[in-house]
Write the structure tokens for this entry.
Amino acid sequence: MNASAIIFYLISAFILGSGILAVSSRKIFRAAIWLLFSLVGIASLYFWMEVEFIAAVQIIVYVGGIVVLIIFSIFLTQHSGSEMPKTSRMKTLFAVLAALFGLLFCCMVIDEYGFTQLATVSFTVPVAQIGTQMLAMGEHGYALPFEVVSMLLLAAMIGCIVIAMKNKEEAVI
Amino acid sequence: MNTIPLSHILFVSTALFFIGMYGLFTRRNLITMLMAIELMLNSVNINFVAFNKYLYPGKIDGVFFSLFIIVIAAAEAAVAIAIIINLYRSHHSIDVDDAAEMKY
């Protein structure tokens, strides 16, 4: 048990603990803040796995974008200080049972499957290689998914504007 | 560095996925359900990066999958929040039980 292993278990405990609080806290604003902590923990797990670029993207997009968006929408739609109504005990019980069953089943399958690790090559993710491979049109290039995902983003942007636009005739009446 | 076996990282991401699933089952508020979905998407991202790091360390394809999932999650969250705010405008509530016109 060296320092790296201890750091990994600390990060995992942090992620799972704040994740549980994010789905079980009854004040919606606190749930959003716990989600923020969980996402930061996941970013630090990426740092631990030495994929700094993904960690940076995680912090920028999730922590800086999505959580802020969620908090804005909470302010627009909720009384953030009030508590949400309790879920019925029956529903909680069955949800816990389903989640535990799935967790145990998946963990058993993962535990029994022997992964063969290739420790011969060291794992490095240079950002320059990400950039060139992202726009390469050759065999291992990702130019087509890049274009498709850019169209998706455009469609999402227009869709958001259309959905959130006030209907003018309704506004007049 | 590779003192942690791959299965431990997979245990963490599995646990995170089922935490998200539990949240999706118990919550009735649309924003909190969206938060649970974000947790599930993040656990999938951890899986991709971990598999890439441990099983195919010479390639970086898992990193690309994570990047694309992050982009799609961002688009999904933006559209979902637009829908939620529009629903709040017409129903004055974002509880899933209050938006039941299209049921049955």
